[in-house]
Structure to design on (243 residues):
């Protein structure tokens, strides 16, 4: 094949990749419904609606990271990256931004487990958990956000006695492969943007500041939701990767 043809093929491939990237970025910036107004999510702060944390006020955003507490590296790194971006924001921006962590492993990640795990980060992050028996709602919610995940059984990397100890303790040995990103949701439950964790903390902070400014003039939600912290709501919890 001649060098000229190789160059043309390379340019064509580059153009296709560029178009795909531009299309993908443009699509991610188009607000779309992600969190139905009727959907209540159990959390470490009680039942949450899309606008609970904003209390119906315009100009608020929630930033959601999907993951699971048994994740060895990606999930804690993602939360640490968001924490570094958070530290770059001013007080006004922080007051209008609500970090959340959605567990994709509700069978092991109870609300108390999430509370302990998230307390290790200098970030006011709320843990979200749908009941393990309610896989349909978890699947529907993640599909609306564009989160993909699946369970993967771990390879036998531990000695037999360790595996037996896990079994006797009732601890399943598996991982969750999932999408890695920060999902930005406004107080009306619309997905505003999907931010890759490959961005630096400074880039994330700049983008979050821009998104906060873009929703600052948006009309308030019609109804104001409140956090339900009753004992019935959080019966199994106190308030508060694979990958």
């Amino acid at each position: 094949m001649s060098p000229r043809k190789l160059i043309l093929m390379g340019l064509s491939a580059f153009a296709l990749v560029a178009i795909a990237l531009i299309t993908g970025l443009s699509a991610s910036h188009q607000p779309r419904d992600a969190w139905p107004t009727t959907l209540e999510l159990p959390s470490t702060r009680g039942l949450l609606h899309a606008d609970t944390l904003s209390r119906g006020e315009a100009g608020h955003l929630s930033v959601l990271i999907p993951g699971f507490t048994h994740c060895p590296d990606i999930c804690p790194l993602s939360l640490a990256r968001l924490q570094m971006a958070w530290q770059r924001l001013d007080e006004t921006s922080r007051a209008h931004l609500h970090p959340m962590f959605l567990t994709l492993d509700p069978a092991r990640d109870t609300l108390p487990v999430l509370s302990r795990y998230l307390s290790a980060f200098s970030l006011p992050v709320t843990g979200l958990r749908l009941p393990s028996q309610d896989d349909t709602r978890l699947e529907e919610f993640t599909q609306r956000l564009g989160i993909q995940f699946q369970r993967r059984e771990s390879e036998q990397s531990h000695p037999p006695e360790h595996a037996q100890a896990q079994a006797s303790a009732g601890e399943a040995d598996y991982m969750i492969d999932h999408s890695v990103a920060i999902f930005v949701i406004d107080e009306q439950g619309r997905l505003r943007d999907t931010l890759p964790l490959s961005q630096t903390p400074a880039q994330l902070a700049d983008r979050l500041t821009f998104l906060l400014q873009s929703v600052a003039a948006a009309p308030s939600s019609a109804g104001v939701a409140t956090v339900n912290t009753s004992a019935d709501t959080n019966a199994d919890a106190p308030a508060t990767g694979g990958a």
Residues 1-28, 157-170, 221-241 have pLDDT under 50 and may be disordered. The first strand starts at residue 32 and ends at 33. The first helix runs from residue 3 to 28. The helical segments are 3-28, 74-87, 91-95, 111-118, 135-145, 160-169, 201-215.
